[in-house]
Amino acid sequence: MRLLFILGFWLIFSPAYAKTPVLFLNPGYSSESFWGDVDSLLEASAARLDMQVETLHSNRNHFDMIRQASEVAGRAKLPAFVLMVNEKHGGLRMLEAFYLKPVYIQFILNDISIEERQNLLKDPHWRTYLLPAVIPDNQDVGNLTAMALVKKLGEQPAQLVLISGDKTTPASVERTQGALAVFQAQSDVTVEQTVYGQWQEDKAYQQAQVLLQRYPAIKAVWTANDHMAFGVIRALKEKQLTPGKDVLLSTINTSPQVLALRRAGEINALGGGHFLAAGIALANIRQFKDTGEYPQVHISLFRLLEPDTPLFDALEKRDWAGLLDQVLDPTRIPGSL
Question: Which family does it belong to (predicted)?
C-alpha cells in the first residue's frame, strides 16, 4: 500500500518540473505487442510526470542493443537516466559503455544477476549510478498461468507441452521454471517436451506442427508469450482442432489480439501486467530525483487477466492514462500491483 500511495502521489500530483531526460533502450520491435505496450505506458507516464523520454528499438537483436548503448554513451549531451533490459545477458556489455559517465542506469524487466550486481556495487561509480531494478516476478506468472491451466484441465490425465522463449533471457528461464514446478507436481499431468520458440509466432507455429504430430494426444500447451500462442493456434486450426476446447492454451501478455482470444475462449489462461514496469520505473526516478531517496519496495506486476474485470476492460480500450489511474490508485485492492 505504501508503494501504491507513493506512485499515485507522484503520478497524479507531481508539479511542473523541468523535464528530466530519460532514454529507454527497448530490445523489441515497436510493432511487437508487448514492447509496444511498454512504449505506450512509458509515454503516458512521462506525460504525467513531466519527463522527456526517448526510446530506441534494437528489434530483438542484442548486438544492436549493445551498439546503441555505446552510441548513446558517446553523445555530447547525455540523458540523465537510461532504462535497460538485460536481454540475452547483454546488460554488462551495455553498462561498460556508461562507466564513469554521469548517467543513472536502471534495469527493468530483466536484471543482471545478484552476483553481478554485488560485484558492480563494489565500485564507487556504480554505487552512485546503478539504481535498483524494477523486475516483475516471472516465476510467479509462470506459476499462475500453469495453475490456471491445470484447473481448466480438471482431474483428467493430460499430456502437455511448453513453448518457452529462449534459453538465456531471465524472464524466459524463470517463467518456464514456474510453470514446470506446477505441472510436475500434478500426478495427472505429463510434460512431454519443452521447446524454445524465440518469442516468435512463425517459429512456434513450426514447432507446434511437429509437436502435434509427435504427441497426437496433447491436451494443453503453455506458451511464454502471446506471439507464440498465435503460432500454436494456427497449427491447431490447420489440424481441424478447436483452440481452447480440443487443446487448452495458456500464455502471457496484453496485446489486443490476445485479449480478444481470451474473451472468445481460445486462450484459457492469460497472465500480464509487466508492461507497467517502465512506467513504475519513471515514477521511482521522479521520487529519486526530487528527494534523493529511491523506493526500496518489492513489486509484483503480474496477475491473471479475466474478461469483464476493470483491468481487462481498460486494457481492451488501450486507455493508458486511465490504466495508470486504475492500477496506481491507493484505494484499490491491496496486491493489485
Answer: Belongs to the bacterial solute-binding protein 2 family.
- Give me the sign of the Cα torsion angle 237, 240, 245, 249: negative
Query: By the 8 A CB rule, do 79 and 54 touch?
Result: yes
Say whether 200 sits in a helix, a strand or coil: coil
Cβ neighbours of 193 (radius 10 Å): 15
**The cell 496484453 sits on which residue?**
254
- Walk me through the domains of the chain, giving residue ranges and CATH numbers: 2-135+274-302+323-327 (3.40.50.2300), 138-272 (3.40.50.2300)
pLDDT by residue (tens digit) across 273-295? Answer: 999 888 889 989 998 998 998 88
Tens of pLDDT, residues 175-231: 999 999 999 999 999 999 999 999 999 999 999 999 999 999 999 999 999 999 999
Could you tell me the maximum CA-CA distance found in the chain, to the nearest angstrom?
A: 63
Q: Residue 257 in contact with residue 228, Cβ under 8 Å?
A: no
Average pLDDT estimate for 53-73: 97
* Spatial CA neighbour of 88 closest among 178, 169, 208, 24: 169
Contact yes or no for 215/241 (Cβ under 8 A)? no
pTM, two decimal places: 0.81
